[in-house]
């Protein structure tokens, strides 16, 4: 018990002395995580969309070739950036790009550091999101696409109006997952000298040797950030799902009773039934489960 | 004699080795209600999906107002907007309300203003009796209601032909009636319809033309009286007698 009191006192002392530096670190961490997650989502969205452009044997050879090529390139990108540690990617981009371009591309000064950090984390997030977006798109019942085609919508219209809004809702937990991972994993950016929350800790303990006490502050800081992020994301999901009830619009007061009508998850055993596609349906269900339980990026 | 709107000529479709449709020939005139009947796996859905270009025919022609729809000059999306389709599994857009389901095609494809699209959508939702539910999402309404909305969504595009692929097969028995009665009204109002169905009473009483398919070929076609009371082919007789038993 004494130990805890002592730890608390040390932490308080550290905080009183360096709180401004910790807060600056937190700010950098959050800015980097938010910006890189957003850019990563855009990259992932583009890759996912490019990757799911359908083609058939009847399409022209150049079209098939280009679509094939795109899929291969995206595949390589995903495998490389998922398959290597972000720490090393940071080194490769920060030091490697100037080296390979004969110093044509350099990351100079503080803004250069920011740029490099954002690039690394975004590209990394993009690689994970590309897979999630692809999964999100193919997990949507093909009937949705057919319904859209049948009223004359083009592929692009079908994607933007029907498929992507549903896919986005499905992958929102994945986006949140990536955001939370980015809050934590941006800490590896110390390797290129980018000072965020963890970097501040390294600087601070360099002066006074209070490793453990400062690490405790870091733990609490990271946990606070991720808990708030989780909470906000869950609120966002709830809000997107909307009300489980809807208003009955009355045009004939005699035949309809007043008020709101709740019909949560109403369905018949035949809903979404598509006998001809049972196999596909199973695959989609598996995709959905994977999306839900976030298989993709926990292990880093 | 009314105008020919759709002609299917020597249409064949294979999936790999499997020839699902063989040399299909028939004609649809404005105002016709054509029922396509036949055993499971005989190629009925594939035929409708070819007509709507959801599947690409392997050979043969589909002519819409005399113009070949797989030809170079025809934009498949434009063509599809004139040929509505109602699916067995409804295929309503799950991310939209009932009203938006009926508006999105008008706004995106026909480039109508939202006000105009809304007014038009309301007209057809009223016709299928779904106006009270315009703010509901598809997951909040019953199967029969979903199918009625799907019909309104197709009608709102003001198509020249409406294709139905077993519109009542995924419904609980007590909901079949409401959908069939909407379809009866459409037929009465002169809508040109092509209906794949297992509802023999509907095929017999509502349609002007019946096509019986068996193993990818049209085995027999003609007016419903003839096909139902005096079938010429043994396979038609077998199929019908199996249906009349239950
Ligand atoms: N995408 C596909 N790939 C391969 N084979 C298919 C495909 N779609 C349909 N088939 C095959 O084509 C045949 C005809 O199928 P289709 O769905 O047109 O029959 P149907 O008459 O509509 O039957 P049902 O009454 O059960 O709906 C079946 O043998 C089916 O297995
Ligand atoms: Mg079928």
Overview of this structure, please?
The complex is a heterodimer of chains A (300) and B (246). By secondary structure, chain A is mostly helical. Chain A has 9 helices and 2 strands; from the N terminus they run ααααααααββα. In chain A, helix 7 packs antiparallel against helix 8. Chain B contains 9 helices and 10 strands. Chain B has helices at residues 44-51, 76-82, 98-108, 114-127, 143-156, 173-188, 200-206, 224-229, 234-245, and strands at 4-15, 18-29, 33-38, 59-64, 67-68, 83-86, 161-165, 193-196, 209-214, 217-222. Chain B has a 6-stranded mixed sheet with strand order 6-7-8-3-9-10, sandwiched between helices. In chain B, strands 2-1-4-5 form a 4-stranded antiparallel sheet, covered by helices on one side. The site of magnesium ion (MG) has 4 residues of chain B, from helix 1.
Query: Which of globular, elongated, flat, extended, rod-shaped describes the shape of chain B?
Result: globular
**How would you characterize the largest beta sheet of chain A?**
2 strands, antiparallel
Mean pLDDT of chain B: 93
Strand content of chain B: 25-35%
The order of strands across the largest sheet of chain B is: 6-7-8-3-9-10
Q: Care to count the β-strands of chain B?
A: 10
What is the N-to-C order of secondary-structure elements of chain A (H for helix, E for strand)? HHHHHHHHEEH
**Strand-residue fraction of chain A?**
under 5%
Query: Portion of residues in helices of chain A?
Result: over 70%
Distance between the termini of chain B: 38 Å
What's the multimeric state? heterodimer
Taking the alpha carbons of the first and last residues of chain A, their distance comes to 34 Å
In short, what is this structure?
The complex is a heterodimer of chains A (300) and B (246). With 300 residues, chain A is mostly helical.
List keywords for this structure.
heterodimer, A: mainly alpha, 9 helices, B: 246 residues, alpha/beta, 39% helix, binds adenosine-5'-triphosphate, binds magnesium ion
């Amino acid at each position: 018990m004494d130990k805890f009191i002592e730890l608390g006192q040390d932490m308080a002392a550290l905080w009183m002395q360096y709180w401004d530096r910790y807060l600056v670190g937190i700010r950098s961490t959050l800015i980097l995580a938010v910006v890189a997650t957003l850019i990563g989502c855009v990259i992932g969205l583009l890759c996912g969309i490019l990757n799911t452009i359908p083609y058939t044997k009847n399409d022209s050879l150049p079209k098939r070739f280009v679509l094939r090529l795109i899929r291969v390139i995206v595949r390589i990108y995903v495998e490389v950036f998922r398959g290597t540690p972000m720490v090393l990617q940071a080194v490769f981009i920060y030091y490697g790009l100037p080296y390979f371009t004969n110093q044509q591309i350099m990351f100079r000064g503080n803004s250069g550091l920011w740029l490099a950090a954002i690039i690394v984390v975004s590209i990394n997030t993009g690689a994970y999101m590309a897979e999630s977006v692809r999964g999100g798109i193919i997990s949507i019942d093909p009937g949705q696409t057919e319904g859209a085609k049948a009223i004359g919508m083009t592929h692009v219209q079908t994607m933007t109006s029907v498929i992507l809004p549903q896919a986005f809702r499905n992958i929102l937990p994945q986006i949140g997952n990536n955001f939370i991972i980015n809050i934590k994993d941006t800490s590896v950016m110390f390797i290129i000298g980018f000072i965020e929350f963890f970097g501040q800790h390294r600087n601070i303990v360099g002066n006074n040797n209070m490793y453990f006490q400062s690490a405790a502050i870091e733990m609490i800081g990271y946990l606070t950030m991720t808990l708030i992020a989780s909470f906000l994301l869950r609120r966002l999901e709830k809000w997107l799902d909307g009300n489980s009830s809807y208003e009955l619009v009355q045009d004939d007061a005699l035949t309809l009773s007043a008020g709101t009508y709740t019909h949560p998850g109403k369905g018949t055993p035949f809903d979404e039934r598509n006998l001809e596609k049972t196999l596909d349906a199973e695959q989609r269900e598996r995709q959905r489960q994977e999306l839900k339980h976030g298989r993709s990026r926990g292990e880093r | 004699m009314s105008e020919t709107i759709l002609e299917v000529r020597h249409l064949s479709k294979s999936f790999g080795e499997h020839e699902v449709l063989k040399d299909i020939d028939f004609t649809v005139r404005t105002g016709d209600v054509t029922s396509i009947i036949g055993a499971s796996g005989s190629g009925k859905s594939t035929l409708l999906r070819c007509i709507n270009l959801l599947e690409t025919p392997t050979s043969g022609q589909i002519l819409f107002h005399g113009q070949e729809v797989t030809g170079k000059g025809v934009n498949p999306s434009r063509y599809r907007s004139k040929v509505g389709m109602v699916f067995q599994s409804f295929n309503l857009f799950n991310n939209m309300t009932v009203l938006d389901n009926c508006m999105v095609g008008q706004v995106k494809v026909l480039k109508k203003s939202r006000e105009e699209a809304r007014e038009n959508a309301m007209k057809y939702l009223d016709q299928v009796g779904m106006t009270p539910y315009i703010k509901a999402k598809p997951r909040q309404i019953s199967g029969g209601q979903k199918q009625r909305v799907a019909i309104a969504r197709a009608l709102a595009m003001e198509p020249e032909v409406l294709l139905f692929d077993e519109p009542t097969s995924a419904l609980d028995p007590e909901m079949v009636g409401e959908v069939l009665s909407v379809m009866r009204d459409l037929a009465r109002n002169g809508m040109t319809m092509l209906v794949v169905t297992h509802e023999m009473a509907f095929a017999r009483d509502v349609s002007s033309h019946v096509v019986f398919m068996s193993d990818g070929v049209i085995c027999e076609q003609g007016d419903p009286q003839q096909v139902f009371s005096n079938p010429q082919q043994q396979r038609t007789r077998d199929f019908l007698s199996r249906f009349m038993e239950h």
